[in-house]
Design a protein that fits this description.
about 40% helix; alpha/beta; Nitrilase/N-carbamoyl-D-aminoacid amidohydrolase; 2 domains; 16 helices; single chain; six-stranded mixed beta sheet; globular; 12 strands
């Protein structure tokens, strides 16, 4: 049997195991490494002398897991390396140091069930882990990136289960499967095999049924996605702003716009708001199809409120702004600085480089002539499970404008696209995603990609939206928080059972 005490550099081994476990996420999907990494951490925790040691085990493992899983976020500091480059190692280590804290409680719960059965440990750990993922989704405005359940993203069939239990539910399932591997190591052969085979069989049968029952025909509604892949370092160069706009317009008109109903540009695609410039209004309307629309990210200034918004404007073929959506969920330290006035003097020159946007209205549904009802999201808003659409006035599709140019050639853009695919499956809605750079795509309600422009590719693509743009899902009816109540109920039951067993 495994003896962690014989490992000379146990902490280093845990750190490496955490790093390797993060390779289960997109685009690598090395699930065997993830399973083995967690198995190693479980076995180290089995030998913990107390809660302090188990907490340290979880933290070190979690440090490696999140430092490697979130490394791409630090790349944003390299766009302006002279100003922000010195923060790169701080950000890289800080991500692991902070998010590693979310591993502590699950491993302490594992230790709490040290003398219980295998499945008490597994279900206790998995329930606590999912609850911690939920806390991570809202604490300090939240960052629910790389939930464990997204590791199922490699299979269109398996991740259909998200339409019932959401990504949090898939996180629980994945950890139970990891626990089945632990059960095999503990010689619980029958129960471990039964759990693994049953879970995968149910997920597979349901996924195949859902895919086959969907009418995947195309409608006559054609969208054009434009991705110019303008480097982030020159995107806001004052001498190139006009040229960048011309690039967008030329790519929007390439091969004509006959049959195209609307064109979508990425987040903050243009620095020019056509409301304030007749010249730019005439330019921009060249990109709009006749009797159609252009949906573009831009910075919207509200003169009455004297406030600036990160927005998506809908512009008609006359160059008039007929609707807009202002980003609601802002990125801390990216789009605003929390407690800006309390910052020390040495950091203020850096902080002043960051915009201070205002928050817009949440869950906006648009109803425009010639288009089905649609909603809008900007960039990372799509990662927030249960927070993407107005369910009382459900849109047929979502337009997501984004820009992953900050993160270079890394795992970040692939994981960002996967988040959009999961929201499509959970809510049963079509998603139209356009990025300045990243991966632009049209995604059907099953999370399947109907057309895409790859990372770092420059081009435009026309895609027909699906005939059935929206379907009903169990997840949307029950709401995403329901799985958290189930996790809490499971955890309470396990602790009560364990307490009663000790009294006997």
């Amino acid at each position: 049997m495994f003896e962690g005490a014989k490992i000379k550099h146990q902490k280093t081994a845990l750190l490496i195991a955490g790093v390797l476990s993060s390779l289960g996420f997109a685009p690598v999907y090395a699930l065997p490494l993830s399973f083995l990494g967690f198995l190693f951490a479980f076995m180290i925790c089995d030998e913990s002398s107390g809660y302090k040691h188990s907490a340290l085990t979880g933290y070190i493992f979690g440090f490696g897991f999140y430092a490697a899983g979130f490394y791409w976020a630090s790349n944003a500091l390299l766009v302006d390396i002279k100003t922000f480059g010195f923060l790169y190692p701080i950000a890289l280590l800080g991500l692991g140091a902070f998010f590693g804290l979310f591993f502590i409680l699950p491993f302490m719960v594992w230790h709490a069930f040290k003398n219980a059965g295998v499945w008490e440990k597994v279900f206790g750990f998995a329930s606590t882990f999912v609850l911690m993922e939920y806390v991570r989704s809202f604490l300090l405005t939240g960052f629910p990136w790389n939930m464990m359940g997204t590791m199922f993203g490699f299979s269109d069939v398996l991740f259909q289960t998200a339409s019932v239990v959401g990504t949090y539910g898939l996180s629980f399932i994945l950890l139970v499967l990891t626990g089945a591997l632990y059960g095999l190591c503990q010689k619980q052969y029958k129960s471990a095999m039964a759990v693994a085979i049953s879970v995968l069989t149910v997920m597979s049968v349901f996924g195949v049924w859902r895919i086959r029952s969907y009418n995947d025909g195309a409608s006559a509604l054609k969208v054009r996605l434009v991705q110019p892949s303008i480097a982030q370092s020159v995107k806001w160069d004052e001498q190139l702003l006009e040229e960048n706009l011309e690039t967008y317009i030329a790519m929007s008109r390439k091969n004509g716009v006959d049959g195209v109903k609307f064109v979508v540009w990425g987040e903050t695609a243009t620095a020019f708001d056509p409301r304030f410039s007749a010249y730019h209004r005439e330019l921009i309307k060249r990109a709009v199809p006749q009797n159609g629309y252009l949906m573009t990210g831009l910075l919207r200034y509200d003169e009455q409120k004297d406030e600036l918004y990160n927005s998506m404007s809908v512009i008609d073929d006359k160059g008039q702004t007929v609707a807009f959506y202002d980003k609601n969920h802002l990125v801390p330290f990216g789009e605003y600085i929390p407690f800006r006035k309390f910052l020390p003097d040495w950091i203020k020159p850096v902080a002043n480089q960051i915009s201070d946007f205002s928050r817009g209205e949440k869950y906006k549904t648009f109803e425009l002539m010639g288009l089905p009802k649609f909603g809008a999201l900007i960039c990372y808003e799509v990662i927030f499970e249960d927070e993407v659409i107005n369910r009382s006035n459900k849109p047929q599709f979502l337009v997501v404008v984004s820009n992953d140019g900050w993160y270079g050639t890394s795992s970040g853009p692939y994981q960002h696209l996967l988040s959009a695919r999961f929201r499509a499956v959970e809510e049963g809605v079509t998603i139209v995603r356009s990025a300045n750079n990243g991966i632009s795509a049209v995604i059907d309600p099953l999370g399947q990609i109907l057309g895409r422009i790859g990372l770092n590719e420059k081009g435009s693509i026309d895609v027909l939206l699906p005939e059935v743009m929206s379907v009903s899902t169990v997840y949307a009816k029950l709401g995403g928080k329901s799985i958290q109540y189930v996790m809490l109920f499971v955890l309470v039951c396990l602790f009560l059972k364990n307490k009663l067993k000790k009294r006997q």
